[in-house]
Amino acid sequence: MEKDFKIYTQEFDAFNKKLERRNFLKSTAGGLGAMALGTLLSSSISTKSFEQQILESLPTIAPKAKRVVYLFMSGGPSQFETFDYKPGLAKMQGQGLPESVRNGQRLTGMSASQALLPIAPSFSEFKQYGKSNTWVSDLLPYTAQVVDELCIIKSMFTEQINHDPALTFFQTGHQLPGRPSIGSWLSYGLGSENKNLPAFIVLVSKNASRDQPLYARLWGNGFLPSQHQGVQFRAGNDPVLFLNNPEGYDGKDRKEMLQYLSELNNLQNDVWGDPEVDARMSQYELAFRMQTSVPDVMDTSTESDEIFELYGPDSREKGTFAANCILARKLLEKDVRFVQLYHQGWDHHGSLPQGMKQQCKQTDQASAALIMDLKRRGMLEDTLVIWGGEFGRTVYSQGKLEKENYGRDHHPRCFTMWMAGAGVKPGITYGQTDDFSYNIIKNPVHVHDFQATLLHIMGLNHEQLVYKYQGRRFRLTDVSGNVINDILT
Amino acid sequence: MIEFIGHLHPVIVHLPIGILFMGVFMMLYEHYSGTDLKTPISLAFLLGSIGAVVACIAGWLLSNSGEYDAALIFKHQWTGIATALTGALVYFLREYKKWGVLMLIVLLIFTGHFGATLTHGENYLWGSDKKETLIEQDSLKKETKKITQIITNGKDSIKIVKHNRYQDDIMPILKLRCYNCHSALKQKNLLRLDSEGFIKKGGKTGMILMAGNILKSPLYTNLILPLEDEKHMPPRGKHQLSENEIAIIQEWIKTGASFEDQIDTLSIKETPIKLAPIKIIVAKKVDTAVPVITNKITDLQTDNTANISVATIASFKQQNIILSNLSETAPFIMANFVNVVPFDNTVLLELQKIEKQLVILKLTNLPIKDNDVKMLIDLKKMRRLNLENTAITNECLPYLKQLPELEQLNLYGTNISDEGLKQLASFKKLSVLYLWKTKVTATGVDQFKKERPDVKVEIGNFKFQKK
Question: B336 with A335: CB under 8 angstroms?
């Protein structure tokens, strides 16, 4: 039957071999249904696609991190009220932004028509903390206490000025949707350590104000095989949608059912050889194992009071950023490769002081606690923690400027993020912005540079982790990106 | 367009050659048969010399590409021009026609030969293809040339065996497959491959070799492109490299593309010491579509390096133990037991199969008891051991002390106490110790720190100052 589908040309040679291999397996292995099909097949077929050959020929950079937790501050947190201390601005309050600073650079449509671009100094005070004497805003009292663990990058910049393209750019390396997310690339390149949990897990804060939307495609696999997509874990009774058995079904014959389903899928796979069938089989198997592993990992009732005190009062309420940080730690303890937290609500076009106070209160303590919690467990040695948004905010006020009430527009030309843990130097600040935090004057770090560095720390060369799709070999860093060696240990 | 006309030169040249020879043959025929062929003969020399002029122009355009040997071009060019002129002379000067024709024949032969040398290479005419294949097989089959040197001081002797992979393995391949277009003779794409300097310099489109990185070395990548690709080398229609030859080049670039002599073996009094860097198997993808066992393994075994066997890797995988590579240059492996549920302590004995490579062992959250730790004492290369949240007590420390390289020890969440801390103080290479949630006391830690100020101790007593 399969022979009818064979086309005997060079291009189809690999495919034909695969079909023959499958026939061989089917005829020799007998009761294949008794085993976990996907696993058996995927590890036995040695016809190597070009992608596999590339993966195998990747020179191993000694990996410094085995896991990543990425705290994504969606909306674009202001650098002025967090880490980028600009004391000189106080004297210039309300004055127009000098043209020599802006130099004709584009603004968003929201503030481009403003007659005056009045300089807005930060409402919050700054102090120096730690042995590194790093300036941190009073809004981040807890982060300030762990500042000696942080590698703060003040010279991040992006090409995108609006939320969705900027977010998509950060997560996938391209501003248009459709490419794989960072976590999917890591899953593709490194695989999963824990076979009972996905390699890429996403947690979205429930307690954030949802000013800008998030889409599931931000953790999508793009053109990579589907098993590499991020899986969102939710707060509540159904952490992973459709994972639990339906009501009234005890699940006793679930395993048997899956075996027969695998056999059917395998028949289909024999005929069509569609890689999505493989992906589907491995997902069914993973989902089955997750029925036991997920409730276990999502259960925070065994955590001690000391833990909840460390992560802050919010952490007792499921779905908050703080509770998600505890979950993230639990997932990392299980060797999940890439955990990504999203916390929305940083888009302060108006009422920034009030908004920033609230946002920082929701995230500051838990972010700092996560670092210290990982550290005492010995996990900070091989876990990389990342904190940051998709862009920064303008030095001038959008709309009316008052001492305690102003707003800031989107600013892609410079913003701050931090990393901590495996592979990065602790207690340093990298890069510098001008007195208006408008332009970068030292060590700029492009989004692709950040991505290249992240992959490097995980032991992957960003130029060689590629996937062929529609005739082109794609990379996370597209056609650019340099590893920032200065911040690496 | 100009390039296109230039490329037509090899086609055009055959016209005047044929027509001019036709004229000569007709003259001979006329002489012996007495038939009157004056008009066709004259026409032949007219058309032949016009054709020769056109061929000259096309040839000149082609020579401007700079891909050919200048000295040879010079000869070919001027004999060619002389041929065209002589053809015209034969047409116009009827009186010395016979002498003109004689000269024309000589010129045609020389021009043709020079031209053919430019296209096919110097040894084409008298060489035979068969011989080349023989040489090829010979050069690939023969044992790598070894340069042996013995140094002796009377008592001990050191034997050093060297070889030069470039000269022994790579140059013969390049000579056979590439020199025709990329050497002194011809420099297609301004590229020459006939010396170290030229190979490192690259061609018109840049560098062709990046030591250690096959994917960035067009010297390799152009060989494996599909035959239809215009960058594929050698071009379609030319003799292609065999898989074996490609593999030799690939391996050479991967291992650093050295042009120098390399020390192969060094033996002191018959005791061989391997100096070649030891590579190990990469277990990169564990639970996904790509098999853990790579083809590299078999290659490596022929290298006689310390490897983990295929069977060992398979057995580790079957028992859900994840092996991962920690370094690109040294045989360092990490073993993670996160998937080993339920845990059966006999599985620890398996680790002895990789005792030479294992440097990090993660046994976190497993019901490990003191007696189980005893099974680890043969793992002498161990640098980091994760025993957090296991059932161990102070009793296991004498076993751990037998691991001479141990630098980091994670004991958080175990029953280690101050008594154990005293023992840990005698672990020579210890530098990091995790003791959160153990029975150690502040005074015990202070005591330990006094004795071992070089060890970083994490007792997890961090507390936020309330704001």
Answer: yes
Rounded CA-CA distance A221/A215 in Å is: 13
The CA-based dihedral angle spanning residues B41, B43, B46, B48, taken in that order and rounded to the nearest 10 degrees: -70
Rounded to a whole number of angstroms, the distance between the first and last alpha carbons of chain A is: 57
Q: What is the dihedral of CA A452, A457, A460, A465, to 10 degrees?
A: -30
A364 touches chain B (CB under 8 A): no
| Angle subtended at Cα A460 by Cα A455 and Cα A462, rounded to the nearest 5 degrees | 65
SS (H, E, C) A339-392: EEEEECCCCCCCCHHHHHHHHHHHHHHHHHHHHHHHHHCCCCCCEEEEEECCCE
User: Both tokens of residue A329?
Assistant: 């730690």
Q: Which two tokens stand for residue A76?
A: 């674009």
* Residue A379 Ramachandran class (φ > 0 left, ψ -120 to 50 alpha, else beta): alpha
Quick check: A225 and B289 CB within 8 A?
A: yes
Place of tokens 């042009």: B259
Tokens 């002895």, residue located: B352
Q: ipTM above 0.85?
A: no
> Looking at chain A, which residue has its C-alpha nearest residue B317?
A43
Chain A residues with CB under 8 Å of B286 CB are 191-193, 195
Residue A278, chain B, CB below 8 Å: the answer is: yes
Q: Where are the domains of chain A?
A: 64-240+316-487
* Ramachandran assignment for B229, one of left (phi > 0), alpha (psi -120 to 50 degrees), beta (any other): beta
Alpha carbons A95 and B15: distance in angstroms, whole number: 83
Is B291 close to A44, i.e. CB distance below 8 A?
yes
Closest CA to A467 of A60, A65, A169, A58: A58
Per-residue pLDDT of B145-177, as tens digits, reads: 566 666 665 555 666 677 788 888 888 888 888
Residue of B nearest to A279 (CA): B289
Q: Which of these CATH numbers, 2.70.40.10, 3.40.50.300, 3.40.720.10, 3.40.50.620, describes A64-240+316-487?
A: 3.40.720.10
CA atoms within 13 A on the CB side of A390: 29
Residue A308 three-state SS: helix
Interatomic CA distance for residues B85 and B314, integer angstroms:
77
How close is the nearest chain B Cα to the Cα of A118, in Å?
Answer: 33
Non-local CB neighbours of A287 within 8 Å, separated by 6+ positions? A243
Among candidates A142, A335, A377 on the partner chain, residue whose Cβ is nearest the Cβ of B388: A377
Residue reference for tokens 């002589």: B86
- Express each pLDDT in B363-402 by its tens digit: 999 999 999 999 899 898 899 999 999 999 999 999 999 9
Position B330 scores a pLDDT of 63
Tokens standing for residue A33: 């249904």
Domains of chain B by residue range: 2-120, 140-263, 296-458
Domain B296-458 carries which CATH code?
3.80.10.10
- The sign one gets for the Cα dihedral A209, A213, A214, A216 is positive
Q: Which chain B residues are Cβ-neighbours of A60 within 8 angstroms?
A: 282, 284, 325, 327-328
Structure confidence at residue B158 (pLDDT): 66
Which carries the bigger pLDDT value, residue B201 or residue A58? B201
**Do A197 and A240 form a contact (C-beta atoms < 8 A)?**
no
CA proximity to B329, closest of B381, B279, B274 = B279
Report d(CA A65, CA A373) in Å as an integer: 17
A324 CB neighbour count, 10 Å cutoff: 30
| Residues found in chain B | 467
- Which structure tokens are listed for A431? 């890069």
Instruction: List the structure tokens of B68.
Output: 């050919």
Size of interface A-B (CB pairs under 8 A): 121
Amino acid at B281: I
The rounded Cα A401 to chain-centroid distance in angstroms is 35
CB contact under 8 A, B412 and A195: no
Search chain A and give the residue with CA nearest B467. A141
